[in-house]
Amino acid sequence: MVGKRPVPPAGYTVRGAKMDDLPDMAALFLACDLHDWGEPDYTQEMIRENWTLPGLDLRRDVWIVEDTGGRAAAYAWLVARDRYRLMDGFGLVHPEHRGRGLGAFLVETREWRAAEQVRRADLGAEVLIRDGVIAPDTAAHELLRNRGYAMVRHFWRMDIRLERKHRRPTNPPSGIEIRTFVKGFDDHAVHAALEESFAEHWGWIARPFEEWAAHRLDDPQFDAQLWFVAEDLRSDRRDVAGVLVGGLDAEMGIVHTLGVRDRWRGRGVGRALLRRSFAAFAARGIKDVVLFVDAQNETGATRLYERVGMHTARRYDLFEKPLALPERRLGRREDERAR
Q1: What is the pLDDT of residues 109-126, one digit of tens each?
Q2: Per-residue pLDDT at 68 exceeds 90
Q3: Average pLDDT in the 321-329 region?
Q4: Exposure check for the chain: N or C terminus, fewer CB within 10 A?
Q5: Shared-domain flag, residues 192 and 300
Q6: How many domains is the chain built from?
Q7: Domain containing residue 165
Q8: Is 327 in the same domain as 308?
Q9: Pairing of strands 176-180, 311-322
């Protein structure tokens, strides 16, 4: 049975979010970044992308904590994934409001919301709750450990400053052609290639085509000229060997996803895709490009990124713990009838 909803510390109120809150959230992130990193890190576009994750309800799964003046003091979100077997979340507190119990309140609120959704997972399934923390926030690390979370993974943000040499793409391997994505033609093949490329990666969750397309292809920020497809010309079917999904965020280029199918790895396909994207970004006057990667990536992606000139700029730590399940739960159909 789900307990009472947590109450924020005295002097604060909490509410759900709406898209109009994005500028205020960007200002909150900027204040935290300057305090924790010494420079900006998270952008408004990154927040917006989180808010468009499938299954996330802005009113119920996002929490904005405000002080008595109506200013944003803290923020968190939680989204259920993998048929409610994984609860992904994140939170942060404005530097001026730290040490007042807001961090604990946000963790408790995410756990409370996760407990609401546990009954929708398959009976007998293990359910995990995860929380991402930036490396410099040692207080958040301690808070999570004290609540039974364990650090399970590191992720890096890797950066590159584009130079004149990046204006020319690298020739692809023999028999491989790299071209821009064609919406309406490449959709299913690209989705299938990405699913195969990441199938064995830690934490990867398969996404149905419709869900993936709604998140990526229907996104207002979708730009086909920054998506690249590597095709094997020696195949009668022109098999997709690899895919790079790129985008823009303010004055920065982002490589959202880079995947190379297993039988084409080790041949330079990933490097050629990256260099093609660098050239496309440079042609638009973009000077800085970033991507996020699992530090323990099984395919050696971090080494590839280093070989093309990228370097590690940030570290993010992922904590998780098993959710306590109710002693007795109804199945989905029985639960629906009980309503």
Answers
A1: 999 999 999 888 888 889
A2: yes
A3: 70
A4: C
A5: yes
A6: 2
A7: 158-314
A8: no
A9: unpaired
With a CB cutoff of 8 Å and minimum separation 6, the contacts of 160 are 166, 278, 288, 289, 290, 308, 309, 310, 311
Q: What percent of the chain has pLDDT over 90?
A: 86
The closest of 166, 168, 171 to 267, measured between CA atoms, is 171
Q: What CATH number is attached to the domain comprising 69?
A: 3.40.630.30
pLDDT of amino acid 262: 94
Residues 162 and 274 in one domain: yes
